[in-house]
Structure formats: C-alpha cells, structure tokens
C-alpha cells in the first residue's frame, strides 16, 4: 500500500519542541504527524493511506463508535539504539494482537505489512521527536474505530485506522523504586468477555477502581478473577510475575480474561534463558500474601510496554497489606529489566530477532 505524504503547514518550532522533549512525561505531548487509512466495505476495504499533520477527526454524531464502542488499539514504542538509529520491538506481535482484537470486536483486519509500514512511516516523519530524557522513547498508538453513521446494532461497514505518537519519559509519576498496588473489589473481565482484546471498553471499566487506587496513594490497581474472586489476574495496564526462592517463576495463565502482553511473552523467554523454571498457573491473593510474609516469594514484577519491567513493593486491600521482599527492586527484576531494555536499545545482543531496525 502506498502512503501519500501531506506536508505539515506549521510544525512545532524546533526550540519549543526540544524544550518539551527534555521532560515529556507520559501521554500528554504529541508529535506533529499522524497516519490515517480509511476502510469502506463498499469500496473493497482499506484505501487512502496517508501521513498527514496531526489534526482533529470529524465524526458524524451517529458514528458507530460513539454508540456501540467498536474501537481497538495497541501500545508500542520506537527506541533510539546505541548506534544512534531507530528501532521497533517485535512490531509483528502488535500487528497480530491488533487483529485478534479486531476479530473479537467484529472489525476488519489490518494486513500485518500495512500495520508495520504505517508505524514505520510515522516514526520516519517524526524522527526529531525522540525525547532527550534518560530512558525516553517514542510511544506509538495505533488504533481503529467504526465511523459509519448508523443506529442499528450490527458491525459497521466503515472504519478508520490511525497511528499517533507521543514522546514518553517515566510512566509512573511517583518515581519510587517500587510501586504500591491496591486490590480492587471491582473485576476487569469475565470468562467469555472481551478481556483478552485491547479495546477501549476494558479500560473505561477500570477507571473507577484505578481512581480509587490513586486516591488511596497507590500507583496501580490489581484485579482478581470475576468468578471466585481470589485468583490474581493482572494490574490495570500490566501483567505480573512472581519470583520464588527455589528458582521458580509464576505468571497468571492466558485464560481469555487478561491481555496477552508482548512484554510478558518476552520475559518468559528471557527468564528461562536465565535458567529459571517459568510456569503459567493460577495464583491466589491469599497465597501471594502468605508467600510474601514467609519470605518464600522473593520478588514480584509487573510488565508492559509503557512501564517496561517494574518491581512491586507493596500490596494493599481487603485481603490485607503485605510487603514484597524489602519493598524495593529485587535483583532479578533489575537484571531482567536491564536485559530487555538492552535488547531494545541495541546494547545487548538480540538473539531472537525481536528488534526491527529502521535506519
């Protein structure tokens, strides 16, 4: 698919952009351009791919996304490598997960090569938007929504696929060495629902419990299963790993109610390379508390594209309050984070072909 390039009439001035990039935060600063591709069933599918100035999107008040929430998205990053080039980390996995989400939400697939090329085109257009802060990256948000105007309950026949970019610094505002989490009484997803799809509705449902966690002074919210209300599933935006003193590591299984994280999948591989026994199995909140209090469980790490790998220091809620290890970063969490980030940025050998260099 060919991409038309539409010149930006008034990009941000270089001095203003550079000042903003020195401390970009997360998710509030956006680059000059965006990618847009239209879909119309009557026109044979995807068409009119373009790289254009980032702008507002006009929607009919009857657009299907506004009434029936047909919307999905991905989260991924572009990195500056040790050699000064740009790279993506496992973008084909984002493309495949995007299409699995599309299948669940009755939306058309975006061909993997088109998805990846759209991301590459945006990174190239906004290559001056990489932040200068230590550990900074260019966060990329591909998304698709139904734009056909109609008020009947059926899959739409018109969609827009877009990619925007946001220079990113530290994900957690607190800056603490380990995060504190609050165990919510709300549930995130039920069996047979949309838990494994990366759709906006899942995140909308998490806003109240996440707000409660923030109000209580915590960094993230923990969700338990919707049936027995005792099995640990995931945080508001991250998967979990539990590290034990006998060399075992457990992560909750992909049962259809949690998001199949790409960072999660990468960590399973890297942890096994460290000689650890990694298993996907159910793990209860009571067992987590008991193992933490006895010292049997040494570390808990949370992982995701935005936060990368983050140690969990404290867990609170109606099930009690307990501290993981010393309450700070554990040795394995620190080591595996450095290895993953090193691969992403070209400082550690990429034995798996995970990194797609753009220069």
Note down, in words, how this protein is organized.
- This protein folds into two domains: 4-168, D-amino Acid Aminotransferase, Chain A, domain 1, CATH 3.30.470; 179-344, D-amino Acid Aminotransferase, Chain A, domain 2, CATH 3.20.10.10.
- With 359 residues, it is of the alpha+beta class.
- The two termini are 21 Å apart.
- The model has no long low-confidence stretch (mean pLDDT 95).
- It is built from nine helices and 18 strands.
- The chain has helices at residues 14-21, 64-68, 91-104, 112-125, 200-205, 207-215, 262-273, 285-294, 331-344; strands at 4-5, 33-40, 45-53, 71-73, 76-80, 86-89, 137-146, 158-168, 179-183, 220-224, 232-235, 239-244, 248-251, 277-280, 297-304, 308-316, 322-323, 355-357.
- Strands 1, 2, 3, 4, 5, 6, 7, 8 and 18 form a nine-stranded mixed β-sheet that branches. Strands 9, 10, 11, 12, 13, 14, 15, 16 and 17 form a nine-stranded mixed β-sheet that branches.
- Helix 3 crosses helix 4 (112-125).
């Amino acid at each position: 698919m060919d991409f038309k390039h539409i010149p930006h009439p008034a990009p941000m001035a270089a001095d203003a952009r550079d000042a903003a990039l020195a401390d970009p935060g997360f998710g509030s600063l956006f680059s000059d351009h965006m990618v847009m591709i239209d879909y119309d069933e009557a026109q044979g599918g995807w068409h009119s791919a373009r790289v254009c100035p980032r702008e507002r999107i006009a929607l009919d008040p009857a657009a299907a996304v506004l009434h029936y929430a047909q919307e999905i998205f991905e989260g991924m990053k572009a990195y500056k490598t040790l050699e000064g080039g740009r790279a993506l980390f496992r973008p084909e996995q984002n493309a495949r997960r995007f299409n699995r989400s599309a299948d669940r939400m009755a939306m058309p697939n975006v061909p993997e090569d088109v998805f990846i090329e759209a991301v590459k085109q945006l990174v190239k257009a906004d290559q001056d938007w990489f932040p200068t802060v230590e550990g900074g990256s260019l966060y990329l948000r591909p998304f698709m929504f139904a734009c056909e105007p109609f008020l009947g309950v059926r899959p739409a026949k018109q969609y827009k696929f877009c990619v925007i970019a946001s220079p990113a610094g530290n994900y957690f505002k607190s800056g603490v060495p380990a995060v504190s989490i609050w165990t919510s009484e709300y549930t995130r997803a039920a069996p047979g629902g949309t838990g494994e799809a990366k759709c906006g509705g899942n995140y909308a449902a998490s806003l109240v419990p996440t707000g409660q966690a923030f109000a209580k002074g915590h960094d993230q919210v923990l969700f338990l299963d919707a049936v027995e209300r005792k099995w640990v599933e995931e945080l508001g935006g991250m998967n979990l790993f539990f590290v034990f003193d006998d060399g075992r590591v457990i992560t909750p299984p992909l049962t259809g109610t949690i998001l199949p994280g790409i960072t999660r999948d990468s960590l399973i591989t890297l942890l096994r390379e460290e000689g650890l026994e990694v298993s996907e199995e159910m793990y209860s909140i009571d067992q987590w508390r008991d193992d933490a209090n006895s010292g049997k469980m040494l570390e808990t790490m949370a992982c995701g594209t935005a936060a990368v790998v983050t140690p969990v220091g404290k867990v609170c809620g109606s099930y009690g309050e307990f501290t993981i290890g010393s309450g700070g970063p554990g040795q394995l969490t620190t080591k595996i984070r450095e290895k993953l980030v090193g691969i992403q940025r070209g400082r550690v050998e990429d034995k798996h072909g995970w990194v797609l260099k753009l220069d």
